[in-house]
Amino acid sequence: MDKRTLGGLEVSAIGLGCMGMSNVYGPADTEESVRTVRRALDLGVSFVDTADVYGDGHNEELLGKAIKGRRDEVVLATKFGITGVDLATAELTVDSSPAYARRAVEASLRRLDVDTIDLYYLHRRNPDVPIEDTVGALAELVEQGKIRHIGLSEVRAQTLRRAHAAHPIAALQSEYSLFARDLETELLPTCAELGVGVVPYSPVGRGLFTGTVRDVEALADNDFRRSLPWFERENLRRNVVLADRVREIADRIGATPVQVALAWLLTRGEHVVPIPGTKRVRYLEENAASASITLTRGLLDEIAEAVPAAEIAGERYPEAGLASVNT
User: Fold this and answer.
1) DSSP 144-173
2) Which InterPro entries has this protein been placed in (predicted)?
3) What is the maximum alpha-carbon separation in the chain?
4) pLDDT for 51-73, tens place per residue?
5) Which residues are annotated as catalytic?
6) Tens digits of residue pLDDT in 14-55
7) Where do the structural domains in the chain lie, given as residue ranges?
8) Which of 15, 143, 178, 194 could serve as a FRET partner for 240 with CA atoms 20 to 30 Å apart?
């Protein structure tokens, strides 16, 4: 697979998000998840993403098991900072203090069973803690060899600039897809200016482009999406219409809507590396194939017309969840 660069870190053009392997989008399937991670490495999808909060550590342990014996094939990213999640409201408890960063990295290294983490993100920021203090602690971890590169997630452009002035930031992770394009106004150009990579999570609209979510009642009882405004009954009906327009384009070019959505993201800049999440080998293979799809200028115009920002129904998080982004 083609490579891209996040700051000074070389990664596969498409990554693998592992969150869904730990009871976030329905039941976990550990054996299939391990097979999926290993198949990703076989395909050259080297960039794998997890976090300490996913499954309360389960996700890191699973990933550590999956990459055992293949560490040199993996660009390993994990995150810290979220210490509590209310799945009903998406409200988060956040600790971005230097002391917590030092404790959290040790726990992640132990669960992942590795000596160093390639990319260590601040998952969310507590605005009461100066970003310079958090980044200063992470810079110490770089000096100690416990992490190689520093990342941030869901911060505003001003915060990114302050952090980057304290220590080079390799990547900014944020929700970014045809359904979530807020960062295009300021953050995307700021990252390009500073040489910071952009890592879109939920790049296929939290499954809206898969065609498998057309009725909220079809979601598992513990599926996180039940709490999201996009999936409220009337909003979902309207958003499915937008996704179906992309399906029509995809059908014409012999691709899937998921592949078109991912290929679209790859056109947003050479510093953009999406991390579609899956726990199934067949979907991983579909995602990986998107890196070989070329979208013409005409197709990009059609896609823009198919999913106008003004027609997207609902916010990406409930009000409580929105409080933790763009900090």
Assistant:
1) TTSEEEEEEES--HHHHHHHHHHS---EEE
2) Aldo-Keto_reductase, NAD(P)_OxRdtase_dom_sf, NADP_OxRdtase_dom
3) 54
4) 999 999 999 999 999 999 999 99
5) 54
6) 999 999 998 666 677 889 999 999 999 999 999 999 999 999
7) 3-322
8) 15
